[in-house]
Design a protein that fits this description.
117 residues, mainly beta, 6-stranded antiparallel beta sheet, 6 strands, elongated
Length: 117
């Protein structure tokens, strides 16, 4: 088996932001792949990317267009049938409306817990 899982998700979220005049809409698209390690099937190599785009512009709030990108590479450990943990590196690029700071890049050591309970 090449993939333990191949997952895609699309979300449209409504955000109410302090001091913004209205509701901000943001689309989120995530694609994730887990590739199990043959010698240790409870472990998998993980790669995923999530792109976030503002659908509308809100006065005193987010502006329409690219908002954020989250790229993750790491390992996943299946602890039980319902619980798993990701360990890895996340590169997060954020668009900022501040003059002089158009984009911000964050480098993050990531630990995430997942539960299917």
């Amino acid at each position: 088996m090449l993939f333990r899982s191949l997952f895609t998700r699309f979300m449209l979220e409504e955000r109410v932001i302090n001091r913004a005049d209205g509701t901000a809409l943001r689309a989120r698209s995530l694609t994730r792949v887990d590739v199990p390690l043959p010698q240790a099937p409870e472990w998998a190599f993980v790669l995923y990317n999530e792109i976030l785009v503002n659908v509308n512009s809100v006065r005193n709030g987010p502006q329409e267009g690219f908002d954020e990108n989250r790229f993750v590479v790491g390992m996943n450990r299946q602890v039980t049938e319902q619980i798993s943990v990701d360990f890895g590196y996340q590169m997060q690029v954020q668009n900022r409306a501040n003059p002089g700071l158009v984009k911000q890049m964050n480098h993050i050591l990531l630990v995430q817990f997942f539960s299917g309970l």
